[in-house]
Amino acid sequence: MLNKVVANAQEAIKDIKDHSVIMLGGFGLCGIPENCIDALVKSGVQNLTCISNNAGVDDFGIGLLLKTRQVKKMIASYVGENAEFERQLLSGELEVELIPQGTLATRCMAAGYGMPAIYTPAGVGTEVAIGKESREFNGKTYLMEYAFDADYAIVKAWKGDTHGNLIFRATSRNFNPLMAMAGKTTIVEVEELVEPGVLDPDQIHTPGIYVNKIFKGLHYEKRIEQVTTRKK
Amino acid sequence: MLDKFGIAKRIAKELKDGYYVNLGIGIPTLVANYVPEGIEVILQSENGLLGIGPFPFEGEEDPDLINAGKQTVTTLKGSSFFDSAMSFGMIRSGRVDLTVLGAMEVADNGDIANWKIPGKMVKGMGGAMDLVASAKHIIVAMQHVNKAGESKLLPACTLPITGLGCVKKVVTELGVFDIDQRGFVLLERAPGVSVEYIKEKTAGRLVVEGDIPEMEL
Question: Model-level pTM?
Answer without folding.
Answer: 0.95
